[in-house]
Amino acid sequence: MIDWIGISLLLGSFFALLLLRIPIAFALGISSLVTALHLDLPLLLVGQRMVNGLNNFTFLAVPFFILVGNIMTEGGISDRLVKFADVLVGRFRGGLAQGNVVASTLFGGISGSSVADVASIGSFLIPAMKKRGYPASYAVGVTVTSSVQGVMIPPSQNMIYYALAAGGLPISKLFLAGYVPGLILASTLMFICWVMAIKQNHPTGQSYSFKESIAILGEASIGLFTVVIIIGGIVAGIFTATESAAVATVYALIVTIFIYKSFNKAAFGRVMKGSLTTLSMVIAIIMTSSVFGFLLSFLNIPTLLAEGIFALTSEPVYVLLSINLLLLILGMLMDMGILILLLTPILLPIVMKIGVDPVHFGIIMVLNLGIGLCTPPVGTSLLVGCGIGNVSLEKVTKDLWPFYLAMVVVLMLVTYYPDLSMSLPRYFE
């Protein structure tokens, strides 16, 4: 028998609390507690579910990835990557915009965060693009949309959240699956930048001598070796995801302190404070979302949603299209990490029924919700970019449509051509 009162209480109280601007962790926890009391479930069970949400060795990789990203950002890797990207493509027309995409792709392999990408890369490139004659809204748009690389190119914190929510998928497969779609997205955005450069007569970038280029490459490659440690160590079976993150953190400290010499006591304090603040929010959300997800399952909400979708259509093409539309809409309204933790237990069984690999669906979900980071009203990367560029949300959104279109096209390719995501994981099996 379906408990419609319990379902209404769980979902209704959750969305009501969100409308009241209650922090998401508290909204999840309060709505779960109220529903558990209605269902006469022991409060001890609620506490156990919260603890079980963190009882996973893979989760230990999250604080290390947060820490290594903050260390490399504070240690000056972002400005070195910007120069490196400028060496590669800066001499072409509109090259600074294309360099923005390249820098975001490289930085995504270190930070694992779209917002960190915008805050770090954007602080250099948005003012630089404005100074060289690019419209402010265009500079912000390029920076924000290319920051989606931060969630696609490993190591992505959101892929770890998906792996946890999916019941413990191999992190190595998810990381490998993100590379090809991430590079396709980068290439597509660079193509849009090239077209816009011709159409709007954007300026050419700076040229570097061979000696300067080698020096810039050498400095950037030292920081980029962090990616080799993380991905190479996992794929080669030398490290687990957690161990590779820990080793990368130590390496990042050595590089920033002894090689770049840009990391001091004050920087260390800022890194620790920022990392602990982020981690505390992540822990609270994971704990409360674990209880919330358990109650979703207990009330058979995933089954009801699946039955509703399959009542409309059982064709895989339309099922995936419906789920993509749902994710795009929700991504405009809620934070990416929260949606992954909440929706994965609901949607994963549905797509598995139509033969979609869980790893493939993870890439679809991460890319889809990554687009949400660039869309109003709550796209965090978009809001950060507008703040840095000192330009209105409405102006940037209006000028972003070519980039939105490009990202949706890539999303459809990734959705309906599984080999784009699955070729690398299969090759390294």
Q: Can you put this structure into words, describing what you see?
A:
This protein is mostly helical and 429 residues long. It has one domain (4-427). The protein is built from 22 helices and no strands. It has helices at residues 4-19, 24-38, 43-52, 61-74, 77-89, 95-111, 114-131, 136-146, 149-152, 157-165, 171-200, 210-235, 241-259, 265-298, 301-312, 316-331, 336-353, 358-372, 380-389, 393-399, 401-416, 419-427. It is globular and about 75 Å long. The mean pLDDT is 85.
Furnish the topology, listing elements before pairings.
Elements: H1 4-19, H2 24-38, H3 43-52, H4 61-74, H5 77-89, H6 95-111, H7 114-131, H8 136-146, H9 149-152, H10 157-165, H11 171-200, H12 210-235, H13 241-259, H14 265-298, H15 301-312, H16 316-331, H17 336-353, H18 358-372, H19 380-389, H20 393-399, H21 401-416, H22 419-427
Helix pairs in contact: 1-2, 2-14, 3-14, 4-13, 4-14, 5-6, 5-12, 6-7, 6-8, 6-11, 7-8, 7-19, 8-19, 8-20, 10-17, 11-18, 11-21, 11-22, 12-13, 14-17, 15-17, 16-17, 16-18, 17-18, 18-21
